[in-house]
């Protein structure tokens, strides 16, 4: 079976890595990596290929940045050429970024089967570009590999047949568990973040990530969040790897973060894990970190009104706090009093074996 495994943006790389590694032991599968180039900076792309032990992609499409239409269109045009030349039996797309949408549409129109890994998640918020990507991808995919029960329900409501839906667990957690083990073996002194951790001297600290357009693209909203962060930083140091979008917006709106908010360039996977796994709290608007913190039992406050990953709230350590400064401050104050630092449980099948299950299922189709 010839398979094209598609990745484009940072959160995709940790999802294709377990699929690629699990396929390499299977003689029956030829798995080629297509990198659309949606993310292209060293820290946003190559650093992850290195950390995740992924080989150089077989195809690099150089899509780059642009408006949603420009980026999606560039990926579609280039990916069509790859599909025409390679004639794969299957295209696997992961997650919910523009590359996921673009490549699933191209493949389906060429009568190539499409498997969507991390299918069925819904925030029911169409202001999120990712929600549109998720809905369109799921409307045309052939196989749905899901990470949590809510996704099964959503897909059933959308009329998908039970035979197409496979609750397999989470490939991103496969990767996380592998990297946690790896981190135990590396010499931590060799990590760039070692000196920062030394500087924190065992103090409780907060690990922050933030890049959603709804949080950083609007001056009033972003100023409010920055105000809350500066206040929290009076009590706790905040470690903040800055996403390129967020960095640009901080400059554009001339927003000042307190020196206790330690700004770092975007981090590779291991560097980031090294810092957040020991944080007293993770404050984020990411999709993936909501799940990764749940998997490792680290308290997480998510600066969004909704989540497409409700298991992290129902069972895990995640609490939704929205993006108003007063709500963020109130939630952090509660954590300080020990009220919100949730002790979660590990969701079903988040056991490191999702990629293996996916290949077992695909090889039987
Ligand atoms: C994209 C995904 C989002 C995901 C996020 C993770 C979509 C719609 N959005 O959002 O779901 O959570 O990636 O990072 O697919 N830029 C760089 N270097 C890069 C990549 C981007 O400087 O390597 C700049 C771009 O020029 C742009 C900004 O960062 O100004 C945002 O990049 P873009 O890919 O449009 O969206 P993200 O916010 O990264």
In summary, what is this structure?
It contains 16 helices and 13 strands. With 365 residues, it is α/β, with parallel strands linked by helices.
Q: Which class best fits the helix and strand makeup?
A: alpha/beta
Helix content: 40-55%
Order of helices and strands: EHEHEHEHEHEHEHHEHHEHEHEHEHEHH
Could you name the CATH topology of the largest domain?
Rossmann fold
Summed over residues and divided by their number, the pLDDT gives a mean of 95
Strand order of the largest sheet: 3-2-1-4-5-6-7
The appropriate CATH architecture of the largest domain is 3-Layer(aba) Sandwich
* Ligands, deduplicated: uridine-diphosphate-N-acetylglucosamine
Give the SSE layout.
Blueprint: E1 2-7, H1 10-24, E2 30-35, H2 46-51, E3 59-60, H3 68-86, E4 90-94, H4 98-109, E5 113-117, H5 129-140, E6 143-146, H6 149-157, E7 165-167, H7 171-185, H8 194-200, E8 206-208, H9 213-216, H10 219-232, E9 238-241, H11 244-252, E10 261-264, H12 269-276, E11 281-284, H13 288-296, E12 300-302, H14 311-314, E13 318-320, H15 325-336, H16 354-364
Parallel strand pairs: 1-2, 1-4, 2-3, 4-5, 5-6, 6-7, 8-9, 8-11, 9-10, 11-12, 12-13
The structure holds uridine-diphosphate-N-acetylglucosamine.
The site of uridine-diphosphate-N-acetylglucosamine has 18 residues, from helix 1, helix 5 and helix 11.
Q: What this model shows, in words?
A:
By secondary structure, the protein is of the alpha/beta class. The chain folds into two domains: 2-170 and 350-362, Glycogen Phosphorylase B (Rossmann fold), CATH 3.40.50; 189-336, Glycogen Phosphorylase B (Rossmann fold), CATH 3.40.50. The chain is 45% helix and 14% strand. It has 16 helices and 13 strands. The protein has helices spanning 10-24, 46-51, 68-86, 98-109, 129-140, 149-157, 171-185, 194-200, 213-216, 219-232, 244-252, 269-276, 288-296, 311-314, 325-336, 354-364, and strands at residues 2-7, 30-35, 59-60, 90-94, 113-117, 143-146, 165-167, 206-208, 238-241, 261-264, 281-284, 300-302, 318-320. The strands form two sheets. It has a seven-stranded parallel sheet with strand order 3-2-1-4-5-6-7, with helices on both faces. Strand 6 (143-146), helix 6 (149-157) and strand 7 (165-167) form a beta-alpha-beta unit. The longest helix has 19 residues, at 68-86. The mean pLDDT is 95. Bound molecules: uridine-diphosphate-N-acetylglucosamine. Residues 9-11, 38-41, 44, 65, 97-98, 129-130, 211, 243-245, 248 line the site of uridine-diphosphate-N-acetylglucosamine.
């Amino acid at each position: 079976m010839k398979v094209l495994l598609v990745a484009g943006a940072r959160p995709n790389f940790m999802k294709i890595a377990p699929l690629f590694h699990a396929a390499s032991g299977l003689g029956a599968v030829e798995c080629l990596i297509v990198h659309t180039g949606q993310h292209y900076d060293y820290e946003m792309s190559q650093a992850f290929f290195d950390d995740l032990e992924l080989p150089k992609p077989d195809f690099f499409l150089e899509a780059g940045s642009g408006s949603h239409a420009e980026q999606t269109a560039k990926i579609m045009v280039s990916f069509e050429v790859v599909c025409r030349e390679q004639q794969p039996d299957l295209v696997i797309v992961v997650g919910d970024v523009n590359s996921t949408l673009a490549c699933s549409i191209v493949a389906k129109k060429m009568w190539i089967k499409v498997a969507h890994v991390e299918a069925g998640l819904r925030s029911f918020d169409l202001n999120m570009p990712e929600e549109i990507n998720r809905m369109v991808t799921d409307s045309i995919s052939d196989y749905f590999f899901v990470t949590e029960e809510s996704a099964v329900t959503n897909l059933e409501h959308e009329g998908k047949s039970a035979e197409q839906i496979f609750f397999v667990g989470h490939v991103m957690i496969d990767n996380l568990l592998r990297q946690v083990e790896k981190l135990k073996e590396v010499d931590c002194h060799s990590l760039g973040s070692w000196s920062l951790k030394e500087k924190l001297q065992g103090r409780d600290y907060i690990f922050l990530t933030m890049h959603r357009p709804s949080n950083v693209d609007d001056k009033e909203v972003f100023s409010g969040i920055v105000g809350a962060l500066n206040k929290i930083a009076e009590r706790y140091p905040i470690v903040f790897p800055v996403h390129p979008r967020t960095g640009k917006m901080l400059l554009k709106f001339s927003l000042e973060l307190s020196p206790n908010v330690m700004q770092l360039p975007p981090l590779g996977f291991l560097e980031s894990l090294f810092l957040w796994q020991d944080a007293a709290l993770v404050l984020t608007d990411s999709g993936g970190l909501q799940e990764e913190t749940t998997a490792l039992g680290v308290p997480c406050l998510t600066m969004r009104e909704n989540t497409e990953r409700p298991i992290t709230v129902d069972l895990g350590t995640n609490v939704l706090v929205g993006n108003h400064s007063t709500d963020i401050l109130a939630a952090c104050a509660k954590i300080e009093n020990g009220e919100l630092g949730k002790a979660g449980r590990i969701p079903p099948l988040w056991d490191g074996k999702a990629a293996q299950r996916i290949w077992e299922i695909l090889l039987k189709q």
